[in-house]
Amino acid sequence: MFQAWRNLYSKSDNAKAYSLLSPALFLIILVMLIPMALMLSFSSFTQVSMMEIDFTPTFQRYIDFFEKSLLVSLLIKSVKISFIVTLITLLTAYPVCYYIAFYVKKNKMLWLVLLTLPFWTSYLLRVFSWKIILGTKGVFNSTLLGAGIISEPLTFLMYSEEAVIITLTHAWAAFALLPLYVSLEKIDFSYIEAARDLGLSKFEVFWKVTFPLSLPGVIGAILIIFIPTVGDYVTPALIGGTEGRMLSNMIQAYFGKINNIPLGAASATIMLTTVILITAIVSYTTKRLTQRLS
Amino acid sequence: MNENFIQINGISKHFGNVKAVDDVSFSIKEGEFFSLLGPSGCGKTTLLRLLAGFEYPTNGNLLIDGSDITALPPDKRPTNMVFQNYAIFPHINVEQNIKFGLRKLGLTDDDIKKRVDDVLALVKLEGYEERFSGQLSGGQRQRVALARALVRQPKVLLLDEPLGALDKKLRDEMQLELRTLQKEIGITFVFVTHDQQEAISMSDRVAVMSEGKIQQLSAPNELYKNPENIFVSDFIGETNFLKASTKSKDGDQINVAIEDLGDFKVKNNLNIPENSSDVVCSVRPESMMISRDKSDWDICLEAKINQTSYLGEMTRFYVEVSGINKVITVSSQHFDNQSFDNNTCFISISLEDISLLQKK
Predict the structure, then answer these.
(1) ipTM of predicted assembly, 2 dp
(2) Looking at the complex, does the CB of residue A194 fall below 8 Å from at least one CB of chain B?
């Protein structure tokens, strides 16, 4: 009997693959699939009073979400902030990676390590340090005041959308550097020389050859920045104030202070769906863009 | 026919302390198949890249068809290049690759279509328009690279070891094809290779390079028959070197004492001075005869066969000549090992086949 099992096992590659994956699969089921299923089911319940929940399945919470203009506007704001953060990160990280990939001859690794140096401290500490920099009595304002450039502290720096954008951009930039650098580094320099040889100017070579060939890295960077920032909770909570509040802060409130778990679960599900949709759109349009450029 | 179609005037290219190309001057004729031949690191690729505009010379200037191109960027030069790794753009298909260089020429759509169709027929790639680089074999990629460069109708086509990545049989085929193609379209080809057989079989003229300098520039048969120095003699084909010293001149000829063999009178094409001890005699393996019995050739030496290697079209013998402690290579088409008793044989040399060369 045991021998028969062994024979079956050694013949089936699938069985081997699953047994290698089983610890990870177990973990994913435990911490991902089960909580997701719980969240989905909670979103179909109704909070009757503080302590009482009606378990009759209903779609009403999703309708509630779209009827509350605050929630919809927070969803739009979350996506907008995240979009701006992604764009700024890409625009700043791409030239840096381009420079390291094509112009740095020695010690490329050292450059990358130095660039990621700020990211060796915890995310929370980095958010707090921005609080010190941007605050009313912060580094930025006291310098400007001391230099006599302004007479009153700039208040929009703190507890605003701008503050959230600045902090998130800095907090996630390193994650954009690596996929961009890898995709640029992989480009054989002879492609660039060949394009020059075929009559294109340096500028045209970038748009016709270098950029299209680096698109996998660009998509990677977009997704790696967009997905975590759209649902970020810490930065808007610490830096954003009321102005910079995002949907995730509201979801947290539904599970806590407001105590409307079903509506919180529905909001989280809607947010998740939005992220999945945007990811799909980004992947599709960049693929189309590659074809258009060439 | 313009004798000075490409003029290379005192070109040097230094990378830090390294003189990759060291004060080189020569001209390439219009419509010529010209090869730059040499071992790796000799400066041949740098010279080609200087012509393409990927590098700029430290000194000297370059002219193509009478106009100075020294300072022009690659996109403004009348040259196109076939890269060693072909550099076929992976994100676009074969047709788009070929059209890539046409967009800046200001052609009408009809002209573009005609040029693409013509060049596809020329390199025999009709029907492959929709393929991507990853779906092509090495030989097909090479044809795409060729088509992409030729479709722009450059004055000069630069080829950087384009056959290096192909297997031997395909390489031999492509050598013939490239040669035929070049004669058909009449564009000047500058071809870089480290393979002496390739350079000799394809080119009208070959420049042999070493250490950034031109060692010899001549037609392939001249290169083989009358090498001008030890480097060329050694690099092109195989040869045996015998130590010697010169004595008195006698018209076009000169008396030499070849070590351990005695005094002989040989031709002196390179005008080597009298009483010089820094000379060698070079004898090609296939110019010698190997036989069972003594011959009446100018030099006939008794020898012992150390080793034989059968090469198919010929057999190579490594023989030790009695009296001199040196192994000589002899190639012959007509013998096999069984013909010799106790591995003893005679090797014969005609004085005409001895080239006298000066050591550096």
Answers:
(1) 0.85
(2) yes
